[in-house]
Amino acid sequence: MDHVDVLIIGAGLSGIGAAHYIQERMPGKTYAILEARAALGGTWDLFRYPGVRSDSDLSTFSYEFRPWRHTASIAPARLILDYLRETASEEGIEQHIHYSHRVTDLAWSTAEACWTATVEHGAGGQTTSVRASWVFCASGYYRYDEGYSPVLPGADEFRGRFVHPQAWPEGLDYTDKNVVVIGSGATAMTIVPAIAGATRHVTLLQRTPTYVLRLPSVDAYAVRMRARHGDQRGHELARRRSIRRQRIIWTMSQRHPRVMRRFIRWVNRRSLPSGYPVDVHFNPPYNPWDQRLCLAPDGDLFHALRDGAASIVTDRIRTFTTTGVLLESGREIPADIVITATGLNIQLFGGIRMTVDGEPVVPRDHVVYRGMMLDHVPNFAFAIGYTNATWTLKIGLLCEYFTRLLDHLDENGWAVCRPELPAGGVTRRPLLDFGAGYVQRSLDVLPRQGDREPWITSVNYYDDVKRFRRAPVQDGSLRFERAHTARETPGGHASAASS
Prior knowledge:
Elements: E1 3-9, H1 13-25, E2 31-34, H2 43-46, H3 58-61, H4 77-90, E3 97-98, E4 101-109, E5 114-121, E6 126-137, E7 161-163, E8 178-182, H5 186-195, E9 201-206, E10 212-215, H6 220-229, H7 231-255, H8 257-271, H9 278-281, E11 294-297, H10 300-307, E12 310-314, E13 317-320, E14 324-327, E15 332-334, E16 337-340, E17 353-356, E18 359-360, E19 368-369, E20 373-374, E21 380-382, H11 391-412, E22 416-419, E23 429-430, H12 437-440, E24 448-449, H13 461-470, E25 478-481, E26 488-489, E27 493-494
Parallel strand pairs: 1-2, 1-6, 2-3, 4-17, 6-21, 7-16, 8-9, 8-16, 9-12, 10-11
Antiparallel strand pairs: 4-5, 5-6, 13-14, 14-15, 17-18, 19-20, 22-25, 23-24, 26-27
Helix pairs in contact: 1-11, 5-10, 6-7, 7-8, 11-13
């Protein structure tokens, strides 16, 4: 593995998807996947907390090229992990994965027209280097080694146990314990109903409510379509329907937020006992889809609340005591275990240090091209999915475009491609227009997006289909060069090219 055409970093959902498209559409290309952990699967192998599952339907969260065959549509992590393992094994992708190989540095050389990756591997922390014509970073955008833990007043006084979901300890016994789950995102909404039957009582403590939608865990339409039309065709039909449904919900939330707010609260009221304080615990101060909606498959959260096994408290923490949590209202919640489902830390490109001809690449100083490349950084692509729809929908389109781009280079004899901002630049905006805490905490370290195409990071799947599948690769913003070329003109017209 001294040199490969494409070096893929990360063997999760995005990395395995990228490998599929490369070997299917460009079988002559060599590639390798470097995975820092000892197993494939990324998120789905990392998280071990009770009830861990998808927060999107598997008709769209699965790959377009490989049908999801289970009846579960909102699926547990073990089924998703099995699906990824089967995909990697049956397509011959796994033989290209190098486990426990962590990329620490990437260095681009214009003279050699390639990247050199510094890789740590082995128990002794040995290092080696791999050269690659292209790098495709599929490491996601959050830190795998730690989650976000805010400062909790009086935490040192608490005699119980703190647990962060991202570092869930094996064999944690919460049987007949009082458990407090701090948070109001998807992780908290998953853990509470998953442990409610075993604990003495579990309390969801939230500072700010979130929107929660009840959704069937089994997509009856998808099951019928697969039975009637076969796996692949049925998968296509169910996927198309789910994409349309997601888009309708998001569009309605943007155009008619009051209507969507009333609708969601109406659904919540119908799922809870008469007189339940929905306006206290399910009434966010922001509009639907300003932050991601949470799902309650088959209404599991509402069942736990209705049965009395779980409760929600909306308040602020004054301090921890030796036996629980004292709130600003004066109420104290007893706790033996506190689960801090307080979110993620973003770490772009897995924390890899990058240089181009010796100059450090600082992501926040760059603008993102088509949501997948950085201006003036050659032969480097990355995968970030949608925040307002299923992650994989965007990843599939990015991977398709990536192979189109590589094919365009090969057809024209070019070796290097880099996006270049137009004369006068663009108006820079935050990369992710999203109100989630983990995004807002990291805006100052993320690259930016522009105010016009192709520098806008689109959140519309239908628009992206046109951009990535149908639009010409050369849009006037890419500079193409042949190897060892000293000077090139923008737009792909070489002035003194040699191969």
